[in-house]
Amino acid sequence: MDKFVELKRAVETVEIVDTHAHNIVALDSNVPFLSCFSEAKEEDETIDFKRSLKEIAELYGSKLSVDAVQESRQHLGLELSANTCFKAARISALLIDDGFDLDKKLDIKWHEHFAPKVEADKVTAFKSIVAYRTGLAINTEVTVKEAEEGLSEVLCGGNAVRISNKSFLDYIFMHALVVAQSYDLPMQIDTGFGEKDLDLRLANPLNLRNLLEDKRFTKNRLVLLHVSYPFSKEASYLASVYPQVYLDFGLAIPKLRYHRMISSVKELMDFAPMNKVMFSTDGFAFAESFYLGARIAREVVFSVLRDACIDGDLSIPEALAVVKDIFAETAKQFYKFDVSSRYSDVEPHHLSTSFQKEQNDSLTDVTLVRVMWLDFSGQHRCRVIPQQRFNSSVKKDGLGLSVECMGLTSICDNLSEDTWLPASGEARTVPDLSTKCRVPAKHQEMVLTDMLTEPGKPWHYCPRDVLRRFSKILEDDYGLVMNVGVEVEFYILKTILEDDKEVMQSFDRTPYCSTAAIDAASTVLNEIVACLQSLNITIEQIHSESGKGQFEIVLGYTDAITQADNLIYTHEIIKGIARKHGLLATFMPKYSPDGNWPYRDDKSAHDAGSGSHVHISLSKNGENVFTASSDYNRHGMSKFGESFMAGVLSHVRSICVFSCPLPNSYERFETKSWNALFLCWGPETKELTMRTCSPPGMDGVVTNFELRTFDGCANPPLGFAALLVAGIDGLRNNLKIPDPADPNDYNLFDYNDENEDTRLPTSLSCSIIHIFSDEWFLETMGENFLKARRGVCGDEIKYYCECGKDPYSEES
Questions:
Q1: Are residues 399 and 540 in the same domain?
Q2: Does residue 505 share a domain with residue 436?
Q3: Together in a domain, 408 and 474
Q4: What confidence score (pLDDT) does residue 617 get?
Q5: b/e code 474-509 from CB counts within 10 Å (16+ = b)
Q6: From the centroid of its chain, how far is CA 280?
Q7: Do 598 and 679 belong to one domain?
Q8: Rounded distance, CA 796 to CA 410, Å?
Q9: How confident is the model at residue 371 (pLDDT cuts 50, 70, 90)?
Q10: Are 402 and 474 in a shared domain?
Q11: What is the pLDDT of residues 717-756, one digit of tens each?
Q12: CA distance linking residue 281 with residue 270, whole number of Å
């Protein structure tokens, strides 16, 4: 019904404050994956198992089987699968109960990567499972002597310690309440169903009445977990008559049958004030359980509130307020902490609404979806699908794509002669729904795709899968994640009439960091920033660059897989918004904005080049491990950091095949122009190929390194994958970084020296020669894969040499 569109949108876009969850475990943990589906012993025969499996299979785009889902998880790796689940769940904060003894559970800090706020540095609440041991009928008159005797009985029992003495537990529980009250902390209490060995009758929250009447505990804040199922009515009653009692319906969702979930939540609201009811996922061990809880809770809450509106119990505005209370506001007040939106101040309905099981067309004005992929030449290509067809079939089955499409050049759509790609055949471009978002064009969305040869099986030439493969190797072999920040440089050009012809001219002619440049471009830049922030892409700063009409946008750090997608979308948004204003944005590495073909002997062409300098760090369990420690310190770097950076430096000429992918890329490498020509590095030195970076005022403490041989025409997944290949080689061989160079001593560098051992490649041809003499790259990336890239490069080089004008001026 149309009148519920606003309510539906509010439920689907509200960010969840998840106040009761547990640690996620490593991929190789012995915790059974099926446990995230059901509490039952025969998990695969329960209704919630069958429903949950269907939800997760759709999330991953896999076949409907446990094996297929697990294969997808293994293929994605822990970080990417967790990111997929949390992104879809739209969780803005996590409170984690880390008391569970789980095999290979990850520490709380690790979870900060997926939720903007994770309370890792302090206790936010107490938690009790006394209901699962001796029940909720707390003896408020228990004495110290009785408690001591109870503990003695446990310790002298001769069995493995499992504390189940009622006197001792009642005593501990009451004193925990006293401590919680003194520190103004709430107490979470497990009630109703949960563990298999509980006496369900004793878990009825009505057993708490004696304690709730005790004046010592009237100022405590208590929350009854698990919807108290099957005692939902009893819990609702307690919340209605005792000010200190609140309710949480986590775990019941998604463990119950659908109609029972709805009826239980309705029962909670029969007596209890609606601002005393909240939701948590009770996520456990697997990120998929967080997703399932959030996904199904939204459906249930919408159904409950819609029915309340139909019955006349609530108005639409009142229901909208309840949505915020249940999923976020009540929790914030109850636990007394602030959560900033992970999506800045952008309106929720402008955000990506990926992973909705059935898109409701009435919720959006989108009519077309761009299904995108990047080829070997770095071109952004797409097919545009009407939204109805996208939702009905394409989002699940993808589109057929000739394998030859990966071998097209940036110049024309002819297949390169020597790509070694199959002469015939088809790959499926299957949408990755976690990337689906709005584009600057009206009524359109875009989504990135994975290339598959069959369901669940990636094509070897899929750029996004190449990056995933090497990210997984880094994580599996070393427990590390490569994080990347990017300085995105580009020119904004405008069209003018000259001799009755349209020509491109620089947008402005101001110098580096000019305020006038920001004034001139403020409308365009404001739109770009708003659009990027709506996609949860972090912008650290913007400034005008040295070139005429040149700007730089700095993207904040995130893992390489996410950053590759971010970089693709950043380019799309910058170019799209520029076009909207009748301008052209170009990422050409060496482009003369006044129309001069940028050969080095053309004096008018010495305007600044554009790069996409990448800043790289390594993290382990969410902690930056690039920085030196007490165990190892060389040039301010850890052993991990030094070896990874040394690997990149030793293979930088091979990396250039992917990071500097056009002949034009090498026009940017010039003497004393902030772009080095030599294979060297130094601390905080922008004249060199690589530099280490330190926080302000902390010389000698290195947090990351910058590589300058990366430009805006690169295919981001392939460029980042090449960095990983090189860094992994450094780690496996424990490479040492050479001593740093002094950029002020130009006698160290002979600019007339043609010795290729000390210089960066002078052309794309040189880079190709280097990579085919690099045994490590041949072994890891595969000879046929590199031959396919070489074939595209060959046609680019040939055209570049033969063309009398800039062949790239409009395309990039």
A1: no
A2: no
A3: no
A4: 95
A5: bbeebebbbbbbbbbbbbbbbeeeeeeeeebbbbbe
A6: 21
A7: yes
A8: 7
A9: very high
A10: no
A11: 999 999 999 999 999 999 999 998 875 665 555 555 555 6
A12: 22
Residue 638 belongs to a domain with what CATH number?
A: 3.30.590.10
In the three-class reduction of DSSP (H, G, I as helix; E, B as strand; rest coil), residue 230 is classed as coil
The answer to whether the Cα torsion of 428, 432, 438, 440 is positive or negative is negative
Q: Is residue 225 in a domain?
A: no
DSSP 348-397: GGGS--TT-SS--GGG----EEEEEEE-TT--EEEEEEEHHHIIIIIHHH
SS3 552: strand
What distance in Å separates the CA atoms of residue 555 and residue 563, rounded to the nearest whole number?
Answer: 9
Rounded CA-CA distance 365/359 in Å is 12
Compute the residue count for the chain: 812
Number of domains in the chain: 2
DSSP string, 448-472: EEEEEEETTEE-TT-HHHHHHHHHH
Contact 192, 157 (CB under 8 A): no
Q: Which range marks the domain in which residue 370 is found?
A: 361-454
Contact call for residues 561 and 719 (beta carbons, < 8 A):
no
Looking at the chain, the number of H-run helices and the number of E-run strands are 24, 26
Q: What is the pLDDT of residue 342?
A: 45
The 3-state DSSP class for residue 312 equals coil
Strand partners, 25: 105
Which structure tokens are listed for 194?
A: 């949960």
Could you tell me what percentage of the chain is helix, strand and coil, using 3-state DSSP and rounding each to the nearest 5? 45, 20, 40
Distance (Å, whole) CA 84 – CA 432: 9
Note whether residue 577 is domain-resident.
yes
Residue 167 maps to a domain = no
Supply φ then ψ for residue 703, to 5 degrees. Answer: -105, -20
What is the DSSP-derived secondary structure letter of residue 327? I
In the chain, the percentage of residues whose pLDDT exceeds 70 is 86
Which of 454, 489, 518 terminates a domain? The answer is 454
CA distances from 520 to 127, 134, 177, 529, 544 (A): 56, 71, 61, 15, 11
CATH number of the domain at 390, please. Answer: 3.10.20.70
Whether residue 380 is found in the same domain as residue 487: no
Q: How far apart are CA 754 and CA 665, in angstroms?
A: 19
CA separation (Å) from 519 to 487, 526, 543?
A: 21, 11, 11
Answer left, alpha or beta for residue 154, where phi above 0 means left and psi between -120 and 50 means alpha: alpha
> CA neighbours within 13 Å on the CB side: how many for 710?
28
Q: What is the β-pairing status of strands 126-128 and 117-118? A: unpaired
Quote the CA–CA distance of 700 and 636 in Å, as a whole number: 5
pLDDT digits (tens, 9 = 90+) for 478-529: 999 999 999 999 999 988 877 777 777 778 888 888 888 888 888 899 889 9
Please report which helix (H) or strand (E) contains residue 8, including its range. helix 5-13
Helix axes 560-580, 463-478, angle to 10 degrees: 150
pLDDT band at 354 (very low <50, low <70, confident <90, very high): very low
Residue 539: name the closest of 526, 549, 550 by CA. Answer: 526
CB-CB contact of 239 with 273 (8 Å) = yes
Q: What does the buried/exposed string (b/e) look like for 91-110 if buried means 16 or more CB atoms within 10 Å of the residue's CB? A: bbbbbbbeeeebeebbebeb
* Rounded Cα distance, 681 and 648, in Å: 11
In this structure, the answer to whether residues 535 and 424 fall within a common structural domain is no
Q: Can you give 167-215 as a three-state secondary structure string?
A: HHHHHHHHHHHHHHHHCCCCEEECCCCCCCCCCHHHHCHHHHHHHHHCH
Spatial separation of the C-alpha atoms in residues 742 and 731, rounded to whole Å:
26
Residue 726 lies in a domain: yes
Question: Are 434 and 479 in a shared domain?
Answer: no
Domain closes at, from 454, 487, 504: 454
